[in-house]
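User: Is it possible to get a 3D structure for a protein together with its bound compound? The compound here is zinc ion. I've pasted both below.
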Amino acid sequence: MTTGFVYHELYMWHETGNHAGPVAYGYPVQPYEHEENPETKRRLRNLLEVSGLLERLTPIAPRPATEEEMLRFHTRAHLDKIRSLNETYGADAGMFSPMGHGSYEIALLAAGGVIEAADAVLDGRVDNAYALVRPPGHHALKDLSMGFCLFGNAAVTGFHLLEVRGLERIAFVDWDVHHGNGTQSAFWEDPRALTISIHQDNCFPPDSGYITEIGAGPGEGFNINVPLPPGSGVGAYEAVYDRVVLPALEEYRPDMIIVPSGFDAGAQDPLGRQMLTSEGYRSLTRKIMAAAGALCGGRLLMCHEGGYNASTVPFMGLAVLEEMSGIRTEVTDPFQELLGGMGLQELQPHQDAVIREVEKLLTKPG
Ligand SMILES: [Zn+2]
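Assistant: Yes, that's possible. Here is the predicted structure of the complex:
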């Protein structure tokens, strides 16, 4: 089994400036490092190297996405806006989407990196792939940057797969703790994509990610939101995969599965309140890989989204890439025992109630 890996040092040079968490600085907020900074991503890449796994992955070189590729999802006005903001420093490109000089080119390199990874999987050069790109993408709308995301990396890649590579059906399974609203919006009326988001109820964006958002027109029934209550642990997530995600994928039979991969559902993430561990992410990866193996020749692509705890994110990423590659390293996650031993990791009744509501959708046609 070969696993492709996309990374580029320039991804780390996207500047988000000083903030207090995600809030822009300015009186009365004392400036501090932005939550979406290079550290978690760089440390994940470095742990892959130290563990010995990196050298056993297949490097996939990113390239900038072309304007034609970007315009399959984004409006020309949005591209122009980000390009012009690129000349200034410290601008907010939309809603909580800071960018600096050079971010436009880096964001194109992120989208192009995910496209290259998808092509590598589709062409059989690798069995599956992980694109460790930055800035992230799953909140970006066609005409608005949101939630640290300038462009919709996964959505742009989805349109590439459908309109250039001739796939008929693709499925997104977004495990970032925040709602994958951008990907949802991209395929809202489009039955060629099944968009699934498992997220923390009403975390970000505000007033978004409800069970009742199921798509519209020909896309009705092809969007599934699972808004888990804060405090959901490995048991709740495994139940969502067993009872919602896997049955929905089996029904839909995608040609490829794309996972917008955020590690901010990890316990102790500063921007989420869920309780996943590296072993939890490993378990979910196994389930998704089994589905990809059964339904679409193992074609699985993950693209990096959030995850803001610089200590724990690298181990969650390592666990995912160990599973994807089938290579177990010698590294033991020093946080697993502490986080895995936290109370209420098992499925709780109020979490089960949410999953039961979502299960009702699966019995409807479409
Ligand atoms: Zn997130």
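DSSP finds eleven helices and 15 strands in the chain. The pocket of zinc ion is lined by residues 176-178, 262, 264, 305-306 (CB under 6 Å).
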